[in-house]
């Protein structure tokens, strides 16, 4: 990926510092990114990609003349910043003293959670829709998953709804932490857990999505139905000196590309 706009070459410290920062940022973010576990990613295509085409709208006049206007979804730029004391960097470079990356990890986690917000919820202010808010998607009202067997019933209902729309699987399922943890219960008349049972239905995988406060989403797998488009993938840039510290930025650009909203069933 291009580092042209990140000003990394202006930083007055060694590649070893950058390696530690990059490993921390990428590791912390990947552990949090639920959307990328659910969907395929496309790209990165570069920072200059600001929108993706979502087709054309056609308007036909009374004279039989058609006019078309291109529709697009903007890529959202997500960014956060953190600081590292200059003395700590100097100590690391001179004698290998431990260099705390706590602020870098926290900033990366914030960016990862914002990416998931873009993917799952979208943003009215930014003009984007998410998997849970897109028009044209299906939904199923779930019951009480404290009752063993109810979770499987609801997932079967979701699969049935998708199947009727022509989406025959495989399916992938993302659940809020509370719902996911309910799946560890065993059926009273056997050794199988509900999680093991539901894996036979959602064969594309079951994900615990920390970004979901409640409910979940079930959908047909495949990037032809939905994907995450990346302009610039999550990277760290150099801002410059700030007092007795150095300031850094973490940024990315991303959009949910939802080609077939009807391939999604929201579990409410």
Description of the molecule:
Keywords: Encapsulin nanocompartment, Hydrolase. InterPro entries: ENCAP, Encapsulin_nc. With 268 residues, the protein is α+β, with helices and mostly antiparallel strands. It folds into 2 domains: 8-126 and 227-258, Major capsid protein gp5 fold, CATH 3.30.2400; 138-220, 2-Layer Sandwich (hypothetical protein PF0899 fold), CATH 3.30.2320.10. It contains 7 helices and 14 strands. The protein has helices at 15-32, 35-38, 86-95, 102-120, 150-164, 177-182, 194-199; strands at 40-42, 51-60, 66-74, 76-85, 122-123, 128-129, 138-140, 171-175, 205-208, 216-220, 226-230, 235-242, 245-258, 264-267. Strands 1, 4, 11, 12 and 13 form a 5-stranded mixed sheet that branches. A 5-stranded mixed sheet has the order 7-14-10-8-9. It has a two-stranded antiparallel ribbon with strand order 2-3. α1 (15-32) runs parallel beside α4. The longest helix is centred in the middle third of the chain and has 19 residues, at 102-120. It is flat, with a radius of gyration of 22 Å.
């Amino acid at each position: 990926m291009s580092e042209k706009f990140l000003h990394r070459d202006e930083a007055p410290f060694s590649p070893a510092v950058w390696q530690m920062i990059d490993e921390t940022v990428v590791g912390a973010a990947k552990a949090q990114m639920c959307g990328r576990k659910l969907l395929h990613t496309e790209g990165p295509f570069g920072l200059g990609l600001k929108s993706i085409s979502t087709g054309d709208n056609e308007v036909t006049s009374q004279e039989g003349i058609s006019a078309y206007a291109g529709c697009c979804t903007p890529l959202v730029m997500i960014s956060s910043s953190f600081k590292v004391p200059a003395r700590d960097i100097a100590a690391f470079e001179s004698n290998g003293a431990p260099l705390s990356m706590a602020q870098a990890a926290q900033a990366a986690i914030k960016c990862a959670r914002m990416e998931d917000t873009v993917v799952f919820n979208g943003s009215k202010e930014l003009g984007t829709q998410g998997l849970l808010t897109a028009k044209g998607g299906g939904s199923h009202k779930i019951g009480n998953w404290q009752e063993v067997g109810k979770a499987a019933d609801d997932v079967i209902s979701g699969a049935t709804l998708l199947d009727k729309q022509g989406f025959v699987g495989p399916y992938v399922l993302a659940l809020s932490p509370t719902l996911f943890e309910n799946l560890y219960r065993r059926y009273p008349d056997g050794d199988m857990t509900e999680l093991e049972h539901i894996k036979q239905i959602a064969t594309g995988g079951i994900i615990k999505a920390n970004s979901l406060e409640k409910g979940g989403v079930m959908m047909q797998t495949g990037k032809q139905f939905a994907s995450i488009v990346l302009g610039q993938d999550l990277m760290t840039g150099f801002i410059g000196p700030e007092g007795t510290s150095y300031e850094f930025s973490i940024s990315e650009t991303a959009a949910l590309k939802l080609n077939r909203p009807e391939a999604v069933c929201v579990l409410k």
